[in-house]
Amino acid sequence: DVLAEERITKALKLNFPDALVFGEEAYARDNSLVDGLAEAELAFIIDPVDGTLNFVKGLPLFGTILSVTRKGETIAGLIYDPLNNTFLMASKGAGAHQLFGDGDMRRIHTAPPVSISEMSGVLCWMFYPPEIRARIAPNLVKLSTFHAVNCSVFDYWMAATGSAHFTANFCGMYWDHLAGTLIHSEAGGYNAHFDGTPYNGRGEPANVLCAPDKDSWEAVKREILGLS
Q: SS3 for 158-190, per residue?
């Protein structure tokens, strides 16, 4: 994580010397690095190895996330699957795309809305508190399928490309969700915090639910998360 972040930071600062650049590892050492993010004309936020536990266990479910903001607004996002040398990327207002290692690029779209019983969901299960797991667990039988990959890269990858209908994360920081929420929105989806407020650059509150449209979002919130 540390070495990857150092290399990415160095490359970004070389090309964008005036930009604010920080990542998960640097933030862990110095929380003040986010100071000025809301005012920065250009900022890059790095998650060098998302899904670190999967990486350590030898599971091929990890990757890199890069978010680009201007005055606190996410204007571009990139998610990278290094084992397949494939990217998801989006810039605000320009749609979302998948870039393959051979240079082929394709527009991506979220799944069409379906009933709860037909839905496939992705929950970052390991980060849900036990009392919330207990509330949600009985509701999972309502779904067609349910996945817990415990990696924001693939949570958003599945939701943005239509491989899953929704993803719901209980926690996370800037680097976990800024790129993914933009890519998901640009792919045609609807996402917001559990309380219905738009996902914001501060990541407050630290949760986010993504679905194909607002009606699907409301249905998942009510039927699966058990929230009114």
A: HHHHCCCCEEEECCCCHHHHHHHHHHHHHCCCE
